[in-house]
Amino acid sequence: MSRNKRVVAAAAVAFLAIGASACGGKKDNSSSNGESSSSGGGKGAVIVGTTDSVSSLDPAGAYDYGSWEVVDSVYQKVMHFPTGATTPSPDAAKACTFTDPKTYSCDLQTGLTFSNGDALTSTSVKFTFDRMLKIAAPNGPSSLLANLDSTTTTGPDKVVFHLKNPDSTFPSVLATDAGAIVDEKVFPADKLLDGSHIIGSGPYTLDKYTAKQQASLKANPKYKGTNKLNNSQVVLQYFSEASALKQAVKDGTVTAAFRSLSPTDTQDLKKTSGIQVLEGTGTEKRYLVFDAKVKPADQKAVRQAVAQVIDRAGIAKDAYNNTVAPLYSMVGNGIEGHTDAFKDKYGAPDTNKAKALLSAAGITTPVQLAYAWTPSHYGAASADEATAIKRQLEATGLFKVTLSSTEWQQYQKDEKSDTYASYMIGWYPDLPDPDNDVAPFLTKEPFLGTGYVNPQILTLLSKEQGTDDKTVRDQAFADIQKIVAEDVPIIPLWQGKQTVVIRDGVTGADKALDPTMFRFYELGSK
């Protein structure tokens, strides 16, 4: 989830297979209930470098990958995705079941405590979900809980979730970090927690935190969950530049690097003695988003003309050294229901076809188009990507592109406020379901500014969200993708891989490289 609010579908389907190409070892999807071995390997800290940043340490305000890396480590959830799995399993819960299509009932493990010793009970869970919905922070994940009507308790160990509509993927929603359980004695009920003194019941505690510099995660001795820790401490080092992260790996001041080295840096590190580069199946996607309320993106012919000339293979080659794959639909490659809708409609890049589209609409060329991107969130290669898009469009003679860059915090606000005619968005799905790739962008109230609402798409979304019939859902997604290719509120560009760079002596990186979240607790050291 790079910047995302996700609307949830009604049925889980097949997801991308998980794998690591440069390191052997079979993934262990098993887990054990009861007290975990918090200290794990206990052979010192694993130091992980990243160019990610943290927007919020409070789960109610955290909805970006950098924040969720910490949230996922410090807080426990009712359900979770075990390493390598796409089906949720109980975590703070010992058992959960649908008692009817709109009622999901969970029995919690007994004796759960937060890291400060406070008891974690059904009251804590109810408080967490009531609070999330009440605060509804603009940059938080409350939209994931849009179908949650209320939460009730029966005794200290039983919690019941009452849904507005049937939703068989609700267990997966609980497994996202929107379901991170907070201490009702520590967190305010109606606003985000100030500061960095956060309390959870997850595998780690946040020992120290300095914004944009470092987060120290230490094994939580009170953790009672299903994840087995293979280290006693993980230190996250934050870097503003990928080049500095690369140098830190070479120097050995970090022992693992995850998100986001440039493709050139990665290729160079592959040749460096004592360093391994591991690759796994990725879910990251990049979209070019239009805001149909901002000129000239308010004209469909302009959006179609851009779609007609954009060269995805060129972007993959010029900006990413072919470490990403062209993407021709909002539904990701390898996801159930995917079609190559944009390829089917537009074929190969064609300037003459784009010119005809603009001419038929009476649009004078060159079209003046502004394109925005952020240098502080999507990695160093995002600058090359923005430049490649500008170069491709201007090479047709049909467009004059003005690039602008904004720091991430401001970018998050601007993308929702009809500021940009077109702009860059990265996407990580929260759930293993195709709905999660499309619905957040195409609802009546999308999480960002598209200025686009299509009643036919809304009907199709409602249809696929209300059934677990694969045939019905696949047809609905096929129709949605066809409409998106026609109206072009968004142009899908590429889908990437996950990459982690480790120094010799770091273990477990192949398991840590999981599509749902990078698993710090899988890392160890020899």
UniProtKB/TrEMBL annotation:
GO terms for cellular component: ATP-binding cassette (ABC) transporter complex; cell envelope; periplasmic space. Its main location: other. Residues 24-44 are annotated as: Disordered. PANTHER family: PERIPLASMIC BINDING COMPONENT OF ABC TRANSPORTER (PTHR30290), PERIPLASMIC OLIGOPEPTIDE-BINDING PROTEIN-RELATED (PTHR30290:SF10). Residues 88-445 form the Solute-binding protein family domain. This is Peptide/nickel transport system substrate-binding protein. The keyword NADP does not apply. GO terms for molecular function: peptide transmembrane transporter activity. PROSITE patterns: PROKAR_LIPOPROTEIN. Belongs to the bacterial solute-binding protein 5 family. GO terms for biological process: peptide transport. Residues 1-22 form the signal peptide. It is found in: Cell envelope. The lineage of its organism: Bacteria, Bacillati, Actinomycetota, Actinomycetes, Kitasatosporales. Keywords: Signal, Transport.
